[in-house]
Amino acid sequence: MATLHRRSAPTGEHAALVTGNGEMGPQARPMPTGYCEAPEKLDQLLSTLEEARGSRLLIVIKGHPDPDSIASAIAQRALARAFDISSTIIYFDEISHPENRALVKSLDADLRQFREDMNLSDFDWMSFVDTQTPHLNVRIAKPPPILTFVDHHAVVGGFEARFVDIREDAGATSSIYAEYLEHSGIGLRPGNVEDVRLATALMHGIRTDTDQMLLAWPIDFRAAAYLRQFLDVDLLRMVSRQSIGARTMEVIQRALNNKVIRGTFLMAGVGFVREEDRDGIGQAADFLLRHEGVETALAFGIVNGDVVDGSLRTNSHTIDPDAWLKALFGADAAGRHYGGGRRNKGGFRIPLGLFARCRDRDVLWTITKKTIEDLVFDKIGVDSQDED
Fold first, then answer.
1. Cα gap 328→341, rounded to integer Å
2. pTM of the model as a whole
3. Measuring CA to CA, which residue among 168, 178, 181 is closest to residue 217?
4. Number of H-type helices and E-type strands within the chain
5. Domains of the chain
6. What number of other Cβ atoms are within 10 A of residue 157's Cβ?
7. Closest CA to 168 of 181, 159, 156
8. CB 273 within 8 A of CB 253
9. How far is CA 382 from the centre of its chain?
10. pLDDT in tens, 255-305
């Protein structure tokens, strides 16, 4: 872990940025009171944003947007705005989880889903948040260069970016952005509607990615302490308590009916799942991990008829979900891994390719289920024919 430092108020050009506008002056924003874990990274970020002043920035959320990626993207936009950078947040996969839909709606977050008629080459820069790779899901004739890349997972592959901050000792990317906000002097203002929403989003991102702070690191606790003074507690409570939909309950029920247990490992296939219900697979894995004697749970299904989607949850000290899933499923021809994760959870998504054309759903599911089970059982060193 990096050495901790106490950071003073910004000086030089960044002080002018913060104090030159009445709305952003020191009277409007509380001065930082805690420790900045990586002041050198913060200085690099501010310098990078200053160099991009007045430009157009595309902030990219990869995969299905979750609380941490949503909050981090909004925080990146807020930081960029302080440097007169015009930002657009874009995502590619559906926002399918009820909590995430409620979060985006409540925040009035202005996230835009990619459409074929969008020209992403029009932007001057790109920023990536909460992702292991900067690879886009679509082809761009002239991809903008990467301005910033901020994440808390182990990075996959090499890439070029003006600013990179990857901290595996952070439980959430939201915690890193909270540190930026607190110690840059750009920070959050009590009572300001946008700042209250941002603080609430960041807190929700931290809580969800650290399992309600059970897996939190020091930076996560410091971030939560900073954000607490700005929160809309009612909004946080609302987005955290969305009811489980009927179709998600059905996915969980199928997982319970189809579970297979080998020692402390539980696996469950849930069959075919609609794209909008795919988060039910992750919720099923969360639920199955509570089974007595189980340390690792894996749930999977065929989503939208063309991909195998799975989620892994573990309390085992011997399984690193990121390395485990990458070793299990490998990568495509371009080197993009089918799976990955973090300390206690992970996921995988494998295209069915030509086999998606199979009209016999029973046969397709039988082959898929058998293949996944054989791979996993071989990985954990048990016979797939063993009795539960």
1. 13
2. 0.73
3. 168
4. 12, 14
5. 5-240 (3.90.1640.10), 246-380 (3.10.310.30)
6. 13
7. 156
8. no
9. 32
10. 999 999 999 999 999 999 998 888 889 889 989 999 999 999 999 999 999
